[in-house]
Amino acid sequence: MNKCYTHYENISAFLRNINGNWRNSMYIACTICNCQKEECCGDMLVSFGADGVPAMIMVTDANFLFGSVIDRTECLCEISNAKFRWLFENYLQRHADTNPSLCPFLQLTKWKKSP
After folding, report:
1. Rounded to whole angstroms, how far apart are CA atoms 91 and 95?
2. Long-range contacts of 62-68, Cβ-Cβ distance < 8 Å, separation of 24 or more
3. What three-state secondary structure class fits 66?
4. For the whole model, what pTM was predicted?
5. Phi, psi (5° rounding) for residue 78?
6. How much is the pLDDT for 25?
7. SS3 (DSSP) at 64
8. Which residues contact 20 (CB under 8 A, 6 or more apart)?
9. Distance between CA atoms of residues 82 and 94, nearest Å
10. Do 62 and 22 touch, CB atoms closer than 8 A?
11. Where does the pLDDT of residue 36 fall: very low under 50, low under 70, confident under 90, or very high at 90 and above?
12. What three-state secondary structure class fits 65?
């Protein structure tokens, strides 16, 4: 049985932002990571709402939801997790636990967004 790791509200926001087409998202390649590894660790897709807030989804979840294997070359662009983390450092500091062993990306995908 397949299991989605991404919180359903994040999946909903992601799908709204991309108009149902995963190719309208940014691919985050998890290449450099010093965080504690979890079963669901891996690459992610991100989209942005009208307010600029990112909505992240695990690629494994996207594969399941869309019934296909996500091809990173078909996304709008690809970025490493290190570069994305640097670009969104202020956002991540406000919306994720500051414990360096916890992955901020997993936190944004797995848990319900704060109001």
Report:
1. 6
2. 62/22, 64/2, 64/4, 65/4, 65/11, 66/22
3. helix
4. 0.82
5. -125, 140
6. 97
7. helix
8. none
9. 18
10. yes
11. low
12. helix
Q: How many CB atoms lie within 10 A of CB 33?
A: 13
What is the structure's pLDDT at 47?
94
The answer to whether 113 and 10 are in contact (CB under 8 A) is yes
> What is the tally of helices (H) and strands (E) in the chain?
5, 4
Higher pLDDT, 109 or 11: 11
d(Cα 22, Cα 1) in Å, to the nearest integer? 23
Name the nearest CA neighbour of 46 among 26, 17, 16.
26
Phi, psi of 10 (to 5 degrees): -70, -40
Q: What's the 3-state SS for 10-50?
A: HHHHHHHHCCCCHHHCEEEECCCCCCCCCCCCCCEEEEECC
With contact defined as beta carbons under 8 Å apart, do 44 and 58 qualify? yes
Which amino acid would we find at residue 49? G
**Tokens coding 27:** 């691919």
